[in-house]
Amino acid sequence: MTTAAPSARRWRFSVTPTPRWSRALKSLQLPAFWVLAVVMTICAMRLFDLLSSPFARFPTATMTAIILFALYAVPFWLFISSMDFLEREPPLLLATAFAWGALVATTTAMPGNRALLGLLAKLISPDFAFAWGAAIVSPVIEELLKALGLVMIVLIARKQINSVLDGMVYGALIGLGFQVIENVFYSINAVEAANAGDQVGPVVATFFLRGFLAGLWSHTLFSAMAGAGIAWFLVRTDKSLIVRWLGLLTGLFLAWGIHFIWNSPILMDGMGSGGAGLLLGLLLKGLPALILVMGLLWVARHREASYYIDELRRLQDPMVATARELDTLEHGHLRADARKYGRDRAGKAGKKAVRAMQMAQAHLAVELSRSPDGLAGNDPVLIYSRDQVLAAREKLIQLGHPEAIASPMRPAVPRVVVLGIVAVLLLCALIWLAIQSMNAA
After folding, report:
1. Ramachandran area for residue 275 (φ above 0: left; ψ -120 to 50: alpha; else beta)
2. Cα 228 from chain centroid (whole Å)
3. Measured distance CA(202)–CA(187) in Å, rounded
4. What is the pLDDT of residue 10?
5. What are phi and psi of 251, to 5 degrees?
6. Nearest to 306 by CA among 185, 165, 402, 136
7. Rounded distance, CA 73 to CA 211, Å?
8. Which of 22, 84, 118, 364 has the maximum number of C-beta atoms within 10 A of its C-beta?
9. C-alpha span between 245 and 224 (Å, rounded)
10. DSSP secondary structure, 400-421, as one string
11. Which residues contact 428 (CB under 8 A, 6 or more apart)?
């Protein structure tokens, strides 16, 4: 049954939400917050010290590496932060996750890796440590340190971890921070190895090699799996303790296992036959892990969307959300199509109004999930959220586009599928360029 589009009516908006700064002040009372602040400060000073020598010797190359990999991180950041549409994570907390990976995990992993690698060489042999050290040592040290970052976020902001998807978001950003700084140091090492002075050529080559040969299945991917396991343990209280522990250990093991396979000498030289063989070998090592994580992400997103949309569905109020809007809000590609449809019918103002409605509905759904009594409880934040939806509805009605729905004439193949195919082809082209750059070097 299709719900008719809502008609115009007047509402009163008289309730204001609780200030967000009051929640932030509560964090200052937590010992974990001050532990985090001290650790971050010490590690930031450590990172500055580690970069001071390269800056003195190779200022242009070092700055180029920092700028290139900072820009490289932008699309990753935008994608990761947009994964959780219905419950946007606080920007400051996202930045904290990124900073943990960039400052704490990297600077702590360096001496830890060296110590464990030396121990491995003594216990077995230097040749074994050279061949398998990176596969054994790095996953143990680095995945543990990155997982501790998510534990710190849980200690200072437990209420922000409400789903497996939340754990994947924070875990991926921790991994992204680690990946960026690690690649900067790889670039500096390449400049030193070239022994040609302050040149940017080795930096650009490293940017292609580290950015596109390993970028999609590197630390961002590893830490997303660990984050999913930690979040499963926290939020799935409906499961037995044994099942929750199994979920946690599975996430951590997958993070370690994917990292181990990628760093191992298996298929290190590809499948032979020059660049094409190397490309095939890299895809065989990295693509299954990427497919696994993207599949888990898809399941987590749909599970979370269904959970929150059901909160709106139980209201049975077409002024808050019609049946067609609920169907649209539940799927990312339909939400994007609804914004385009709003622009087609009402110009830029229509697209902006549809987006405002979607964001207001999503925020109301999250607040409803947190309130045991729903709207009947007269929670000021909840009532304010509902009023924001009603205000967005009134704006849509004024524009002559009363529903934030996807176009009934949308293409049979979603644009996201087409864009995904184009992205894969572009990625293969970039990997091929990276391989050619490596062969030329």
Report:
1. alpha
2. 11
3. 7
4. 41
5. -60, -45
6. 165
7. 10
8. 364
9. 17
10. T-------TT--SS-HHHHHHH
11. 279
Percentage helix, strand, coil, to 5, in the chain? 80, 0, 20
- Predicted local distance difference test score (pLDDT) of residue 12: 43
Give 129's contacts (C-beta < 8 A, 6+ positions apart).
Answer: 117, 118, 120, 121
Structure tokens belonging to residue 201: 């050529």
Return the closest-CA partner of residue 14 out of 290, 322, 268, 388.
388
> ∠ CA(313), CA(319), CA(325), 5° rounding?
55
pLDDT given for residue 50 in this prediction: 93
Residue 172 to residue 79: CA distance in whole angstroms:
10
Residue 103 and residue 95: Cα distance in Å, rounded? 12
Residue with tokens 């799927």: 331
Structure tokens at 259: 């990292």
The long-range contacts involving 51-59, CB below 8 angstroms and separated by at least 24 positions, are 51/184, 54/188, 54/191, 57/198, 58/188, 58/191, 58/192, 58/197, 58/198, 59/198
Q: Averaged in consecutive runs of 10 residues, what is the pLDDT profile of the chain (441 residues)? A: 47 46 59 89 94 91 93 89 78 93 94 91 88 90 94 88 89 94 92 86 84 76 92 88 93 92 76 61 76 83 83 88 88 86 90 92 85 69 88 92 83 60 69 60 51
- d(CA 279, CA 435) in angstroms, rounded, equals 8
Angle subtended by helix axes 274-313 and 164-194, to nearest 10? 150
Question: Which amino acid is residue 292, in one-letter code?
Answer: L
Establish how many alpha carbons lie within 13 A of residue 102's alpha carbon, considering only the half-sphere containing its beta carbon.
21
Instruction: Determine the Cα–Cα distance for residues 220 and 334; give it in Å rounded to an integer.
Output: 27
Q: Report the chain's terminal Cα–Cα distance, integer Å.
A: 64
d(CA 322, CA 165): 26
Q: Is the dihedral of CA 127, 128, 133, 135 positive or negative?
A: positive
User: Which residue has 């008719």 as its token pair?
Assistant: 4
3-state secondary structure of 238: coil
Q: How far apart are CA 207 and CA 68, in angstroms?
A: 7
